[in-house]
Amino acid sequence: MTANGAPEALIRLFHVHKRYGPKHALVDISLDIPKNAFYFVTGPSGAGKTTLLRLLYLGERASEGQILVDGMNLSRIPAKRIPFLRRKFGIVFQDYKLIPTKTVFENVSLVLEAAGKKFRLIQKKVRSVLRTVGMEDKAEALPPSLSGGEQQRVAVARAVAGDPKIILADEPTGSLDEDSAAVIVDLLKGFHTRGGTVLLATHDRSLIKKTGGRVVHLHQGHLKEITSAGLDYR
Amino acid sequence: MMRFYRRAFQDIIGNRFVNTLTVITIALSVLIVSAFVLFFINTAELIDPWKQGARIMVYLHDQVPQERIEPLLRQISGMYGVDHATFISRQEGLERLKKSMKRQPSLLENLKANPLPDAFEIRMIPESQSEAAMEVLANGLEALPEIAEVEYGQQWIGRISSIVGLFRLGGYALGALFFAASVFIVANTVRLVLYSRRQEVEIMRLVGATDGFIKAPFYLEGLILGAAGGTLGLGGLLAAFLFASTSLDQSLAGTLLKLRFLPLSTVALVLAGSMVVGWLGCYLSLRQFLGQTPLSEPL
Ligand SMILES: Nc1ncnc2c1ncn2[C@@H]1O[C@H](COP(=O)(O)OP(=O)(O)OP(=O)(O)O)[C@@H](O)[C@H]1O
Ligand SMILES: [Mg+2]
Asked: pTM of this prediction?
């Protein structure tokens, strides 16, 4: 807790801009996201949702402004430390980013291997997260042989496997039917109740209403407002 | 560590064709370069005595009295280009001859008198020896009245020595050339594998893999390619060597020249060298490739 009683920010953006050439993808974004928050990032297509998430894990650097993640100032991180920043996040990419030549199991275990986890632990952990997303039967399948929804579930499994502090989920229910979407959202909520922080980018209003949480509204790169949705007033 | 091996082997098997070609190229380079080394090692034996100073034999007339030997020795020792001279009496000469002909003692048994003359063995100073210097010295020796004959049959070795020197230079150049070519080919192979895995590399980075973690299997692959190529090349050389030396043994030359294969330390060195080739090729293409991917250092 800070002096004024507001929860300490886990993620802090301070006058952040992102430009792609003449294109302004994000304009003057200032935003605090406290520990153990459940935040939605919403807005129409092209609003800058994905860009905002990319800046957090240093998929790209901000053109201007400062970003702090868990005490690390992203503009000061040397290239060598970037992998350690990224291990704070579990990321569900909008395009899944599964390795097509590796099995579902290998795709998920990769995160744990990269973090230097022991073989035994990896085996156990991967089985367990695949079970929670209902993909244990497809552990040996290759991603291209899976449906879009199945790939998305594998992507979610990979994001939670490494026990990250923060989950960044970019349209994690985009290609799922309502029931499968509910499974994914329950998973993310479970992660949240265990103390994790979630940032979920979506333009699915009903999902936001059903789930509840803080909602960051983006429009053409500008932060319009932050509202609360559902029962969960944080 | 196991997972790095697995990934490296997967890459090698997944790109069988280029990897086989690479191993063969390295093997051929190793074969050619180490064939040169083998050649040098075997010729060195022939040339080394020459390097330590050419030998000139001087034979005296029969009637040279014993007391002339000492002053003559001093006079010869003082001549230009002479390192040292030793007197070999006719008895001593016969002893030496008997020793060297142990297998056919009957040839010498029936001698009534010693047919050998007294002699001097002269070694030249290695630094000042050349064909011309040898000629001058030999002429000077021949001019002495006590001396009947001067023998310096090793002249031809001097000529060979300079040819081998030239060969050696060519060998170094060729070695450097093949080294560079092999490094280049390994770099190309690794680049190909990297290219086929670029999506995977990017994803690994996104999920927090360090560059070291990503690179390790590629280095391993480079080392394996190098070691395989080196082993194959040395194996080929050994096979060729065994074939050549057995056929030489049966000919006359075999009794004069005993061929030797590369000493173990050189074999180890060649193997290490080919692994360095693999490592270096990998290093070069990784540096280029990872430097180019956008996520190495986002801007
Ligand atoms: N690498 C890039 N180069 C150029 N322009 C880009 C790049 N990435 C994003 N943009 C632009 O920035 C703007 C924001 O893109 P972003 O992907 O963040 O939108 P989004 O809110 O995630 O949209 P969607 O809901 O369709 O996923 C878009 O106009 C897009 O064209
Ligand atoms: Mg997007």
From this structure: 0.72
